[in-house]
Amino acid sequence: MKNSILSKSLFAAAAIAVTATGFSASASAQGRITKSVEVSYADLDLTSAEGQSTLDGRIKGAVRQVCGSYDRKSLSEMADHGDCIEEANLSAKRAKVSLIARAEAGTLGTSTVVIGGN
Q1: How far is CA 83 from the centre of its chain?
Q2: What is the pLDDT of residue 111?
Q3: Are the CB atoms for 26 and 18 separated by under 8 Å?
Q4: Closest CA to 47 of 93, 11, 90
Q5: Measured between alpha carbons, how far is 59 from 38 in angstroms, rounded to an integer?
Q6: For labelling, which of 5, 13, 29, 111 has a CA lying 20 to 30 Å from the CA of 98?
């Protein structure tokens, strides 16, 4: 029991450190996040593989919503779209790690997460 609590605490601390470090690097690299979508997870058990898989699907949909479509004939639009997908996926990955850590630690509070892109 003691090892379980310690493991959860260490995992949560590591996830928070990764999230904070990743967010500051992303924010300074791009300087802005111009679009975002809220993803609900209130109905999911994020400590289960099924709940995490459902969250992954919702995140993929949010990334598509944030980044939209682009003109395949325009190289600059293709590049911008690729940058948006990359930034939104990084945002989602950081959020997911943090959410799962908080769920496993029993400290999951809110019911939505914001996924952003440029």
Answers
A1: 16
A2: 84
A3: no
A4: 11
A5: 9
A6: 29
